[in-house]
Every structure is written in C-alpha cells, then in structure tokens.
C-alpha cells in the first residue's frame, strides 16, 4: 500500500502553491505560480531519487530505471499540475502525485518492476490560458507540432514558448522521447456519476469529443438612450441569443450533449453604450462524434441566422477539436479486476472531462481510473474527494501498475 | 455671428486630447486624460479674459461679468467635456465650447448683456466611470450631497474625490455658488430624429426618465464537460436570459421604451468553467414615468423568475434614477422663435440622452437646443455633425442668449 500520509500531505502542500492573497488558487500554465508548483514537483522527484527530464513543450518527467532492469519501454503514469482560475486542489495534481507515490512506494518496498516507470506532469492540460487543452500531451503524442504549440498566444497575450523560457521549463528533450508501452492516469471524476450511484471506482473506458470555439460578434456602438431598438446592431444581444439557443437545444434534446459559454467580454463595456463587440467561447461536448458534428452544424446555422437578424458580423475561430476516444480494453479490465480484488464497487464509465490520457492513447494503450467527486463539483474551490477515496484510488493505481509494469 | 473657425478649430483640438495610441478617444471623468482636457478649457477661458472658478465637485465655470453690469443672477450655458470609452468629439464638448464662443463673440462685439454670463463644464456627465451620470450638475443643483458624490467608487475602483484632488480639480467653491436665472444647453442630438426628418434645429421640450441598475448573478462554477445541464447553476445563462427578455419586451410593446445591457463580466471567465458570477448593467429609459416604473417592475419580476428557474442568487444595485424632465416652455419658445428668424426648420422634441440641463432645471428655467447627428450615431467614434449645422446651432445659441441675458 502507498504511504497515504505522504500522498495526502503533498496534495495539500501543492494546493497551497499559487494561492493568492484573495484565497483563490490560480496556477495557470507557464505562469509564475505554476513555476513554483513545477519546482516543488521536481524537488519531490529528486528527493525520491529518480531522474528528471523536461521536454521542449515543458512536460516534466520523473523516470525510475530500477537497477538491473532492462531499458525497455517504460510504463507511464501522469496527469498535470496547471489549474483553472479559482481551482480546487485535486484536478490533475492527484494523478501526478499518486504516480510519484507509486514509484516511491515500489522503490521503498524493494519490489522491482520489469520495466522503467515514468511519471509525467504535462504542460497546459486545462487550456484556460493557452488553447487547446491537453496541449503538452497532444504535442508529446505527435498530434501537434511543438513549434506551432510554442507559438500559441494566451488569453493575456503571452506566447507559450516565451513563458516556458521565462520560468525555466523550456526543456531540451524532444517530445515523445520516451515511448511508453502503456499509460494509466488516476483522476478525480469531476462529475456526479460515482457519488450518485454510490460507487467507489470508475474504470474509464472512453472520453467524449470536445469542440472549442471563440466567437466574435461585431455590431455597432451607439447611444443607449437615443437609439431606437430597430436601429441597433447590438453585439451583446446577439451573444445572449447564442447562449440561450445552446441551452434550449441541450435541454430539448435527449442526448448527453453539453454546451457551455464560459468566457464573455463586451466592448466598449460602458453602461450607456450599445456593445459594439462581444467575444465569447463555446465549449461543446458529446461522446458521439456524429452528434458532436450535428451540434457544431446547428451552432453554425444559428450564428448565421443571428448575423442576419441582428445585422452583425460574426467570426468564428476554432480553439480545440478532439474526437471521442476509446481507451484500451485490456487496461480497463485490469482496473476492474483490481477493484474486485480490493473489494471496491466499480463501474465502467465515460469521462466528461478531457485528460492527458486521451492524447497519450494515440501512442500507447491507455486508460484511466476515477474516484468520486463530492457533489460532482470541479473547476471550483469546493472541489473535494474524501481522503479514503483518494487513498483507495492510489492503491488501485499501485495494483494496476504492478500488473502493467512488465517488459 | 460666432467665429466659426475658432469654434470648429477648438472642437477638433479638444477632440485630440485623450486620444490613445490605438486612436481611441477615452477621456473618462477625472482621469489623467480628462485633466488635460480641463487644462485646455481653462486656458481658453483665461485667453478669453474671463474669471475661472472650480467648485468642490470639480465643475469648472468661466464667468463673464461685463464691466458696468450689475452683479445680478447670471445666465448659465454649459455641458461637459468628459467622454465615454471610444467616443466621438462632439458629445458635450460642443455645448461647452459654443458657450465659451458666445461669451467671446459678445465680448469682442462690444455688446453688453444685462447680466453676467457663465459657461460651465460639469463633472462626470457620462456616468461611465462613476455613477450616476450628470453627477456634477446634479450636485450643483442640490440633488446629491457633494460629500456623498465625492465618495463614489468608479469602475476602476478609484474614488472620485481622490481623483479630483490628484488632477487638481478639487475646487473651493460650494456647488450652487452661482444661482443662474436661466440655463441653456446646446448639444448634438445623438439620435436619428432630426436627420430622418430633414430638420435643422431641435427645440428640446423634455427629457426621458433614466433608470440604471447593476445586476449581479451568483451561480456556481463547475466543469463544462462533466456537469449535466440539469445540475448547472450557470450565472452566464441567467444573464443572457435577461438580455433577451429586455429585447423581446421592448420589441413586442408599442412604446418608445429602450433597454440596454452595456456592461457584462463573467467570473471566472474561463473556457471550460461554468460561470459562477455574471455582473451586468441595465439602462432603461422612457419619457413616461409610469411606464418606466412598469418596465422596472417587469424586470424585477423577471429577475425573480430567473433566480428561481436557474437556482441562482440575484442582487440588484441602483446606479441612477431620474424621472422625466419637462423644460421651460418660455425658453423652448425662444428657441423656436430664433430658429424661425434665422430661417431654420425646427421641431419640438424629446431628448433620449441625459443632459446636465435636466439637473440644472431643478434650480433654474432651462432648455436645450439640438443639432442633427449624422446617421443618429453617438457614443461611437463615428459620431459626427456637419460643420454647417454646428455653426447654425452656435448662432442659434447666440440669439437665445441675447434674448435671455436680461437682468
Ligand atoms: N480534467 C480537466 O479538467 N481537464 C481540462 C480540460 C477540459 O476537459 O476542459
Ligand atoms: N448626452 C449623453 O450622452 N449623456 C450621457 C448620459 C446618458 O444619457 O447616458
């Protein structure tokens, strides 16, 4: 079994890094706050006595090559340590620290796997500062050119490559330099399913498709008091119609499609000026690729209608697009078997969130283990998982690693 | 007649003060940019050889006390030189500079009015940085305590009193120190009526009521990918419903009510996070007080419904509330008579925008003169009035001043 005190203690400590004077945890990718989190993770890797490597997109790897074990394809564990704005402490960090904990536990126990084990902290999984999300693992798996990724401009105008250089995490290794023979990621569910059903472990067998777009509506500023409603080209009203359209559509269908408008900005953003511009994001997801395409097409058609109705100009920029992913059946079965041996209730499930596992699945058999999220809350400071569930998940990971760490 | 070159030249010069590197004119009340505009106005007042006074709320007065004229109640002219964000150059400045031009013209001509004439540049008419709008004239007319006004917090967190001190316009005079016997304000229409009807001069007989509110919707942040639609407490969606409600209501009624949501902010404003908070402004206007109350009540009822439907908490803060104002009938008739003498087409009309005249009307008979706005555009860099109309308006003002500048 893992050292639960060490794991839970580190989770709490990492959760304090990047917490502002206002109490909010904000550790956006490649920011000063995230540098401190990275430094702490690297310090723990070194304390554990394993090799540290950083690749060109800033992914950090702790690599344990047990003495006497052949240098064959490693087993990879991992997740991310960047966060959203006003985040909880579990999302991503749990998987990274549990991966480290597995290596430390195995090392201390004297047990020797048949292959090296690597634990990764992938760059910019959240996608909040730089799009797309899961960027570090996507680049690592060859899905996005590293130089293109490094040139990405963030919501604050910063360039990712410059930021990685600034914080000292512009590594030398070429992404993909370790080719794992399997990848397994432990994560909090971030949704309500396990808790609602009273189940302890999720064996994640697939992950829904993700479509991110940024929509810019260009209307015309005019005086709020003098401009008749019929003469307005109100970018804010056009944006509001899109939000209610997406909600009404999601509610009136019988599908699991979710649609979210998370970002919104008005210009000039003045009380007595009709908005000349509204910029907002649309996050569309569905486990079924055909349905996701239908939703995208419906949005596109509605945007065209709104542009006509409101006499505004609408531009759309794609920020991320990932098809649904199926995880490796054998690893999913290993998870189920481990849960059964440990006496945990377990169900197969779909991940609603995006994860690095979905990218690494392009290069190696991959799967995920979920533990329950209290109230289904995530991307929120109230995000929480019971300590017993966190420890149970880590021990599940230990068991699965024991099964997977074969030559 | 006025010196049209001087008037138009000054209007252009003032219009360059506060223009940023991005080409946008932003001269928000009591900002560094507005200080430069104030300094320019004061320099022109001194050049004209008239007394300058600043009161505690930062209103600037140029006071001409012609030699030999008894110190009886002055005639007051004026408007404002603060602007919205990304403004045109005419709104407010035209009235202030035309007032100055009238005094300069009369002085130069050797004509002697029967009373002093004052020209005012009132503080924070736009209300964009500090609410309410028309703050300087409201305080001047005794409608708002000066110390309460000075304590107002702006959209940038600044305190008005500190800002006025910082820019050196925290004057000594007590607001109301000049009690005018009449007030007349020349302004661009900012709306489409005069142009559409091909009329040169508006004799403004009333001004619609203004209701400004700031609405804060508190929902709950959660993960965009994992949170079923039915479990969301989406502050952004609640805000969007309010925008479409206001528009649908305005469109389906047969009244001149206008409703505008000019400001909108989402928190945490991240692409994959359901908004936990949305803060927006509502600007409601109607020439009829009873109808304005009905609109406010309808909004209040709808906010309560949205709060229930969306399981969000909604707080409302009043930022400004002014009843419709009727201007002085005799001055309106003087405007009509002057237009007729000059051979201008003229119509009585309602002002859609708020103006300092509406506040000064509390302390003295007041009215306004409008000139056409091309395309009805204002609060927009494309705001424009033909030079011939600007000059015609200034000469109209000269004539009305000649009629009003009596002991
Ligand atoms: N796990 C997680 O929250 N990932 C962020 C990317 C996304 O799903 O929006
Ligand atoms: N004239 C003018 O634009 N005033 C600003 C106050 C308002 O009407 O919103």
TrEMBL record, chains A, B:
Cofactor(s) listed: Zn(2+)
GO function term, MF aspect, one: hydrolase activity, acting on carbon-nitrogen (but not peptide) bonds, in linear amidines
Annotated binding of Zn(2+) 2, by residue: 91, 126, 379
Keywords: Hydrolase, Metal-binding, Zinc
Residue stretches making up the Peptidase M20 dimerisation domain: 208-309
Pfam families: M20_dimer (PF07687), Peptidase_M20 (PF01546)
Positions contributing to Zn(2+) 1 binding: 80, 91, 187
Cofactor annotation remark: Binds 2 Zn(2+) ions per subunit.
Domain of life: Bacteria
PANTHER family (UniProt xref): ALLANTOATE AMIDOHYDROLASE (PTHR32494:SF5), ALLANTOATE DEIMINASE-RELATED (PTHR32494)
Entry's family note: Belongs to the peptidase M20 family.
Cross-referenced NCBIfam families: hydantase, PRK09290.1-5
Name assigned to this protein: N-carbamoyl-L-amino-acid hydrolase
